[in-house]
Amino acid sequence: MDTLLKSKKRMGKGPKPGKSGLVSDNYSVASDKLIHHEGIRIENTYQLQPDEGKRFKSYIVEEEMKRILRTTLESPKYKDSIGSSLTTDLANDIRRAIQELGWPRYKYVVQVVLGQNKNQAVQMGSRCLWDQHCDSFACASYSNRTIFAVAACFGVYFD
User: Which residue of 13, 15, 23, 47 has the fewest CB atoms within a 10 Å radius of its CB?
Assistant: First the structure.
């Protein structure tokens, strides 16, 4: 209580000599410089959820990824030298195809794992922290006699 009275007295004295001329309280900076508009209401310009028809649809993305993996990987044989460039090309092709589907305000993360097929077991896992109502993912895989590939696309709504 005592400190509250002291701060009110300090504010009432005016600015100290040598200061900028602004009087501030403990809760705001330069409160005499703030402009208050009492009757004006401004609507928010951001959107917290996508429109109903514009949500990430994992079944559509899955089909698109399967098509891209099949067309790209059906002819080449596995070589160590092409693995890095092939995964980068696949990820970029998938990302471009998903962006063309026209879901506004979504950011896409595409991950592709590629390897030599020798009948081995491979598992791929991921964890995400997101809004389960707006964000989603899709996975697709492809394998032939020499190559296997697993692709994952994460669609995250960006408000």
Answer: 13
